[in-house]
Model the fold of this input.
Amino acid sequence: MHTSELHRKLLYNATQLMNTWEIEPAHVLHVAQLAVKLAHFWRAYQPVAPDEISILEAAALLHDIGWAQTADRDGKGHHKISERMILEANWDHDLAPYVPVVAAVARYHRKRGPKDTDLAYSQLSPQSKQTVYRMASLLRLADALDRMHQQIWDIINLEPVSSHSVCVWVQARQKTSIREVESAWQKKSDLAREVWNCDWVLRQV
Done:
């Protein structure tokens, strides 16, 4: 499937599913915007395929749909429920090879990263597993920036500052301190450090 057609179909199907189940669309739309922006900035320094960015955006739109199905809506285990809901959804037939990858990226937006003991992940091809690792690492960073679910932060730029360190410059849309997201950023940058072999440093403009 051509890249533009894949993007259109993935986003259409993901948006339909998001509209059905997402209880906080403003959050996931903002996270998707941040994740895509982060991926595009990072492409200047590391190869990131357009298909991967489409998968990332779809996963970002759907990473929290499991909240609607958690007991007492407390969110516990919602990342695993999101994965299951994505896998069980009615996607266009020709998207079948991509759906498990989208589901896995969405699942690993929180808690630990992928393991081969995870059933759905273990069934992916080596190339798809690599895409999951790479895109989940970026989704985690984007999600950390909106940990308060208030759509305050925007990514302005990204630049390597050494061979083992990348600086992500962010700007607040209202007066606030970066301390509000620093702890979440430190926690959720674990996978990005592992995948890309560098520290991800957060700085406020």
Observations:
- The longest strand covers residues 153-162.
- Residues 36 and 111 are 21 Å apart (CA to CA).
- Residues 126-145 form the longest helix (20 residues).
